[in-house]
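Technical annex, item 7. During the second reporting period the consortium partners agreed on a shared format for inverse folding records so that results from different sites could be compared directly. Each record opens with the tokenized structure and is followed by the designed sequence. A conforming record, contributed by the partner at site C, is shown below for reference.
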């Protein structure tokens, strides 16, 4: 099979697995506090990620990465995978995985806006401006739709809070994307390998989330995964689908396909969550919802492929 096709299939599989991981975090957030979910999932992911790094590069930690790059990647990890993902799971708890994941697809659009500012001073093409408008319009239509909300019931105040948390999570992920790009490329003559950057970011986020969990007194919540077989099963499935196999497949996609194509395919997760939410929660896939999701993803594709 052609390597490009393999990479594209890996990108689609990444989207499927990340959608499944969001589904798992939704189930876990119903059984334990979202702050504990964020910390425990990262702690469980560090070991296999370190083992995979050893298998590929011969070390459990990328010791040859310059200190400045490590610092920037740690900042990226804390903001995106630490703060951003914690808010993401809080959002899932309030409004469900499908809607939360759809909102967070705005992160490439937000990153494009951030890149207009110093030190990058990037410019948007006409296609990218159109993609930005499509992404915002599509997400707005998804949020405004009332049908299907009964599948993940929330009081009006909780629903609004879930929307805000999801948007702020998208902002954090956008910042994390740009800062990780700086950390990987701007402090060394040789770019930091993507998987090494991922490991640094995950470890930094794990330390941050663990500290927040202890500081907020949610440590006991983490023990739920050891007392409940269902909770442990959802955790194990989510970690395997997201931070472990999902990241591995995303690296395969990036290695063999153009970055824009790989990123676009990996952003298709909300489409996979539509049938998942239908089967699990009874959210019927209304035509308007599917169309609005496609509009949002089309906008993201314009941004990434331009």
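Designed sequence (site C submission):
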């Amino acid at each position: 099979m052609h390597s490009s096709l393999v990479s594209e299939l890996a990108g689609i599989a990444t989207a499927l697995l990340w959608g499944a991981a969001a589904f798992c975090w939704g189930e876990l957030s119903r059984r334990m506090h979202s702050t504990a979910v964020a910390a425990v999932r990262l702690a469980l992911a560090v070991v296999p990620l370190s083992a995979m790094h050893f298998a590929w590069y011969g070390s459990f930690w990328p010791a040859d990465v310059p200190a400045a790059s490590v610092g920037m990647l740690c900042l990226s990890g804390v903001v995106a995978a630490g703060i951003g993902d914690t808010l993401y799971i809080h959002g899932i708890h309030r409004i469900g995985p499908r809607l939360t994941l759809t909102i967070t697809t705005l992160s490439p659009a937000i990153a494009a806006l951030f890149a207009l500012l110093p030190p990058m001073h990037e410019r948007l093409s006409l296609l990218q401006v159109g993609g930005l408008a499509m992404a915002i319009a599509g997400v707005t239509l998804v949020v405004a739709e009332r049908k299907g909300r009964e599948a993940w019931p929330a009081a009006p105040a909780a629903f609004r809070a879930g929307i805000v948390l999801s948007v702020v999570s998208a902002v954090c992920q956008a910042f994390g994307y740009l800062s990780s790009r700086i950390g990987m490329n701007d402090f060394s003559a040789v770019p930091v390998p993507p998987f090494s950057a991922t490991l640094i970011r995950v470890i930094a986020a794990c330390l941050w989330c663990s500290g927040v969990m202890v500081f907020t007194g949610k440590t006991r919540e983490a023990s739920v995964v050891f007392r409940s077989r269902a909770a442990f099963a959802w955790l194990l499935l989510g970690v395997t689908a997201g931070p472990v196999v999902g990241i591995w497949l995303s690296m395969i996609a990036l290695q063999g396909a153009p970055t824009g194509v790989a990123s676009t395919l990996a952003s298709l997760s909300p489409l996979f969550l539509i049938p998942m939410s239908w089967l699990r929660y009874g959210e019927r896939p209304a035509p308007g919802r599917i169309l609005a999701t496609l509009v949002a993803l089309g906008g993201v594709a314009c941004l990434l492929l331009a």
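The mean pLDDT is 86. The two ends are 27 Å apart (CA to CA). All partners now use this format for quarterly exchanges.
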